[in-house]
C-alpha cells in the first residue's frame, strides 16, 4: 500500500488539490447566498422598496438566506422565525450604523452639474469654473449621506461631461428616492445678484423641494426660494428630483462661500437634514 501511494504520489496530490478547490468553491457559493444583519431593527418589507409595507424588523445577527436580488434589495428568508421578505442590502450589511433610519434605507443620486469641456458658469476673473465646485459639493454631500447609511450614486465622480439625457438614468435604474443636481448661478453682470434657489418640475418633486428649501435656510446666503422650471435633468425623470443653485459664481460675496470647504460641508449637512425630513414625511 505504501509503495502504491509513493508511486502515485503526484496523482494523489492533484486529486487532493481538486477536491479542496471544489470544496472551497462550493463553500464560497453557499456563503454568497447567506446574509447576517448588522444593525438592530433592519426592516423586512413586502417589496423591494423603502415604501413597501414593513412586515417585521430583524434583530442584529439574524441569519438570512438570500433568494433574489433586485436593484440592491434582497429577498431573504429567516428560517428560524419563518419570515420572508425584502431588505436593503446596504443597510443590512452596514457595519457602523446601530439602528436604521428612513435615510439609511434610501437611495440618493447626486448630480454634479457640468464637467469636462462643459465648464458651466465662470467667476468674474474667468479662472474659476462652476463644474469644479459642483463636484466638490456633491462629494461632500456623498460623504455625509454615506456616513448616515444611505446608498449614494454620483452621475460623475471626476471632471468628465455627462450628456443631459443620461443624467436621469441612474435614478431610474436604481429607483432612487431622490435625485439632487448641484449648480451655481450666474447673473448678467458682476455682483448684480446673490443667493441660493431650488427648482423642481414634476409634482412628486415638490415635497422634496420644500424640505430642502427649509433646511437650506441655514446657509449664510439669502434663500431666494423654490420654483417649478422644466430643466431637462429634473423634467425627464419619474423619481423625485430637485436642482439646487447654491450661489452666484460671478458674485464676489457668493464666490467666497462657494469655494470654501466649510460652506460645502454645511450645504451637505443641510441637505441631509432636508432629506431626513422629506423621507420621514413621504
From TrEMBL:
<keyword id="KW-0812">Transmembrane</keyword>
<dbReference type="Pfam" id="PF01520">
    <property type="entry name" value="Amidase_3"/>
</dbReference>
<feature type="domain" description="SH3b">
    <location>
        <begin position="32"/>
        <end position="95"/>
    </location>
</feature>
<keyword id="KW-1133">Transmembrane helix</keyword>
<keyword id="KW-0378">Hydrolase</keyword>
<dbReference type="InterPro" id="IPR002508">
    <property type="entry name" value="MurNAc-LAA_cat"/>
</dbReference>
<dbReference type="InterPro" id="IPR003646">
    <property type="entry name" value="SH3-like_bac-type"/>
</dbReference>
<feature type="transmembrane region" description="Helical">
    <location>
        <begin position="12"/>
        <end position="30"/>
    </location>
</feature>
<keyword id="KW-0472">Membrane</keyword>
<protein>
    <submittedName>
        <fullName>N-acetylmuramoyl-L-alanine amidase</fullName>
    </submittedName>
</protein>
<dbReference type="Pfam" id="PF08239">
    <property type="entry name" value="SH3_3"/>
</dbReference>
<keyword id="KW-0961">Cell wall biogenesis/degradation</keyword>
<dbReference type="InterPro" id="IPR050695">
    <property type="entry name" value="N-acetylmuramoyl_amidase_3"/>
</dbReference>
